[in-house]
Amino acid sequence: MPIPPGALSHEAHPHATLLSDFILGSQDGLVNVLGILLGLVAAGAADRLILVAAFAALAAESISMGAVAYTSTLARRSLYLSEVEREQREIKEVPEMEREEVRVILRNWGYEGEEVEEMLRRIEAKPKAWLDLMLAFELNLAEVKADQARNSGLIVLGSTVVGSIIPLVPFFVPGVHVLSAATASVILSAIMLVAVGWYAARSTVGSPWAGAGRMLLIGLAAGFAGFLVGHFLGAV
User: Fold this and answer.
1) Which of 112, 141, 185, 216 could form a disulfide with 167 if both were Cys (CB 3.0 to 4.6 A apart)?
2) pLDDT tens digit string along 82-132?
3) How far is the CA of 218 from the CAs of 15, 32, 193, 194, 224, in angstroms?
4) Total of domains in the chain
C-alpha cells in the first residue's frame, strides 16, 4: 500500500510564507501610520508635524518589523536544526523506540497488521524519509530554509513601507485641507485593507468577502482608536 500523497513532505509552501509576511507587514504599517495620522489630525496638529510624525513612524516601524521577522525566523530555524540533530541521534541510539513511534503514526493513518510492518520497513530503508516523518508528524515541524530569515525580513520590511505610504498619499495633494486629506486617507486605507483581506482569503480558504471584512474591521478599529486618543488628548 502506498504512502499517502504528501505524507513525507511537510515543508511550508513558499507562497504561503510570502503571503503571511506580506499581510503582516502591510497591515501593520498601514494601521500604525493611519492611527498616528488620525490622532494628530484630531488633536489639531499642524500639517508639518503630522507628516514628520508619520514618516518617523514609517521608518521606525519598517525597520522594527523587518528585524522582528528576521530574528523570529532565525529562532525557528535554530529550533528546527536542533530537533533534526536530536531525531537523528535518537534514530541511531534508540531505533526501536523510534520504530514504535512510526507504528503509531501509521496506525493513525489507517494502516493495520502486516501493512504497518511493511510500511515501517520501507521507511527504515530511506533514512531521510524516516527523519522527515518524525519531524513532520511527531514534532509538527516544517523545514525552515537557510535563506528564509533574510527573505522574510526583507518582505516584511518592504511591505511595511508600502502599507505605511498608503495613508500618507492624500497629504501630498497640493492645497488639500487636512480634514479632507484625513478622510481620503481613511478611504484609501479601507480599500487597501479590503484588497489584502480578499486576496488572502482567495489564496487560502474561506470566503473572500469575509476575509476582506475582517481585515477592514481590524484596520479601521485601530485607526479609530488613534483618532479617539488624539481627540481626547487634544481636548485636554
Assistant:
1) 185
2) 999 999 999 999 999 999 999 999 999 999 989 999 999 999 999 899 999
3) 24, 12, 9, 11, 10
4) 1
| Chain centre to alpha carbon of residue 49 | 32
- Which has the closest alpha carbon to 203: 28, 26, 15, 30? 15
C-alpha cell at 83: 530537533
pTM strictly above 0.90: no
**Residue 2 domain flag:** no
Domain that holds residue 160: 14-235
Q: Is residue 38 part of a domain?
A: yes
Answer for the pair 35, 222: CB distance below 8 angstroms, yes or no. yes
The answer to whether 188 and 216 have CB atoms below 8 angstroms apart is no
User: Could you tell me if residue 7 is inside a domain?
Assistant: no
Do the Cβ atoms of 27 and 163 come closer than 8 Å?
A: yes
Q: Which of 34, 32, 4 is nearest to 167 (CA)?
A: 34
Scanning the chain, the segments in alpha helix (DSSP H) are: 14-42, 47-93, 95-108, 114-124, 127-137, 148-165, 178-203, 208-235
Whether 202 is in a domain gets the answer yes
22 and 14 Cβ atoms separated by less than 8 Å: no
